[in-house]
Structures are given as structure tokens and as C-alpha cells.
Amino acid sequence: MAAITVIDREGEEHVLDATLGWSVMEIIREHDLPIEAACGGCCACATCHVYVDEAWLGQLEPASDEEDRMLDEAYQVQENSRLSCQIPFSQALDGLKVTLAPEF
Amino acid sequence: MNERAILTPAGADPTGTDRARTGTIRSEPIRTDMVIVGAGPVGLFAVFEAGLLNMRCHLIDNLDRPGGQCAELYPDKPIYDIPAVPHCTGQELTDLLMKQIAPFEPTFHLSQQAERLERLEGRWRVTTSIGQVLEAPAIVIAAGAGSFVPRRLPLPGAEAREGRSIHYVVRRMEDFRDKDLLIAGGGDSALDWTLNLHPLAARLALVHRRDDFRAAPDSVMRMRDLVGAGHMALHIGQITELHGVAPELEAVTVKSPKGEVLVPCDTLLAFYGLKMELGPLAEWGLNLDRNLIEVDTATFETNQSGLFAIGDIITYPGKLKLILSGFHEAALMVQKAFRYCFPDQKLVFRYTTSSTDLHEKLGVA
What we know:
By secondary structure, chain A is an alpha+beta fold. Chain A is built from three helices and five strands, in the order ββαβααββ.
């Protein structure tokens, strides 16, 4: 099965089974890692903020304007910041590595 | 999230009092049948179901308008799973519900949080964050994921400065007169207050993480004109450090990919949008499971008699966080609530289609 690696806020790495077609947020939430995702995945909050491992940045579709606007409500936004509900998981992303951003 | 919710410049009274928060407090406790905590779609529909059974409702919400997440998080986003409404937006659903419950004349207590709950003889007493007291035999918690509160700066020293040199809402514009003011954010609140406080402040600067603003284009243009004319500064970056001896503030560090700059200021007004927090009801003695309230699914009563909960804030086996589930829960809940409000009356089950009694209540008889 495909998998993603998620680094939690304590720095611990979790390798998660990842279902194709789900968003990265949904995969993280399924495994009960602490991701708020208050709006449920409709790009209407910024509580599923993650940092994408630099090695994977080039593999992702760029963030939409809507996602970039929503990131205004995140904290410690970096060049590699993304809202994980806006990253659909595909076979090409098998092995994707992300870090949970600080809660805000 | 729409940042206008807590308080907009238009809602602020320059003479000092914010009418939305303080103007309508009644000194005597308000007695009613049902107090609903949360004016989201489920709280609103509870007014309808309660109204059919002759129960009058008062609603409390920390936002400045009804609609909850529908109005605040996704007013323009589509909803497709409301039975018989193939498509509507969050705001349209709110507007339709407001129309549907209008015959029952609910009273709204907005821009305030339900803070304290006490059990009296045969009824409950709720006190809001601005001191409004409401009493009713039935209390309904329809609080969703909690109330919307401003996001606060998660930096060391921010809490110690809150209300002194760091603010998240404007209560009185005068508080900012002659200040060396830094405003943070890129939405309407940040831009509107930049324009409104600019004439009052001794000096004003705006900080936002990128040179692109989601506020109304006209406000952005006016801000840029002020910057162009040298009347205010604009810093692109994020605040990473606070300087000065708390509760005083002397400067902040603003970090961008280009590096760090020190921005002197004695007052910081930050608008990072709203987030949802369970808030005071966590202390109401309810059975909570992961911040969700446990209920009896026959009546949607909590572990305390006369205290009900419906919608996203509850949990039970099979629970789905859908608006439609909340509507169903409201309909069942009022059957039991009726018994607390009218202990001597018999309850008869009738359809809105055929009951002339219900037609009268709905104003269509």
C-alpha cells in the first residue's frame, strides 16, 4: 500500500498507510494525528497547515489563489507551506513527507 | 474566514461604547422557554421546531450575525446535501432558515458568549460574557465546534501583553490615539482599521506576510496611497518576536525570506481571523468525549436534566456531522424540552401540512 510520512509537532515520524484519491488531510486525520481541519476540507480555514518536504515540492500541483489567501490565517507560513486538504493523494506521491505546522 | 465578524469599524462607536456588545443588556433576567447557545443552522432550525410546540426562544452567539460556520467559514461555498434544496450557499441556507423561523420571532443576543450556567429551581440561568442574564426551563447547546474567537499571536510574551499593548479587537478607537501602532493582517479588518485609525495614531504601519491583500480592493488602494505618500509604512513578512518588557511593547521582529527587520511600535493590533474554541461550556459539568457532548439519542438531553445538545457538538454511536442530522436532532429534542416548559400540558403530534393550529403559529392561517 502507498504511504506518507508525517512528522508531528514533537518531531516524531509516523508512516501512514495512504488511500489513493483521499486528501493528505484526510489521511492524517484517519490516523488520529492532531490535525484540526475545522472546515472539513473545503479550503475555508487554515487548520490543516503542513510543511511539505523540500524534495517533494516539485511533485505537487501549485497552490491555488484561494489556498494562498487562506494561508493568511495560518501561522509561521513558509515557502513550503500548504493546506493538506488541498493536496489530493496519488500514486505519484507515494512516500510524500510532510510536517504538521504549529497550531494557531 | 471572514474577519469582520467580531467587530468592524462600522460597528464601533467612536465615542467609546460598542453598541453591538453593550447596548441591549436588560438589567432584569430575561425569562423565556428555551435558550439556544449557538445561532448556526441547527440552532436556527431548533427555533422552528420549538415554535411549533409554542416554545419561545432566545439565541446566544459570539459572532455578530446568525449562521455560525455557514456564515463565517463558507458563506459563498456550495452545500448540496440539504434535503429538497439541490444547491445553496452557506449564506443562502442561513437566510432561508431566518425566513423560516421569522414567524416565531426569536431574539438574538449576538457578539457575546454564553459564559456561566447555573441550575435554579425548575429552570436554568445563563449569563453571557457581557452580563446578559437569561432564564429558561430548557437550555439547548447547538454550539458546533465552539464559538468563534480571534486567533492570538502564539509568541512568548503575547499573553502578558494582551489588552495592554497587544489587541485583537478594537473596543474604543480612542485607545489608539497617539500610539505608535502596528496593525497585522491582510483582510478587511486589518485594512479597514488601518484606514480608520491612521488619523488617530501618532504613527501607523501595516504588516502582512505577502504583498497581496484579500481585503476589498478599494481599501487596499487607499492603503497603498497612504504608503506611497509616506504617511504610513508597509512591512511584508511575519512577526516572529516581541521586544520590550511585558506588558509594554517596544518593537517586533518581522521576518521575510529577505531577512529580518526590527519594527518599533508600542501597540500591536493583530487580525489573523477567527478560530473555534469550546470556551466556557467546557466547565458546565457535561459528559465530554474528545470535546464532544454525550447525549441520550431519544431526547438529545445531556447528563443534566433540561440541558440539551444538538448538532456538531454532540457525539453518539453513528453520529454524522451533517446539518441534516442536526435538524433531525432538533425535532426530537423539542419533544422532551416541551415537558420542562409545560409540565402540565399534553403534547399532540401534528403535521404542518394539515394543522390549522400550526398554520396560525406560522402566520399562514
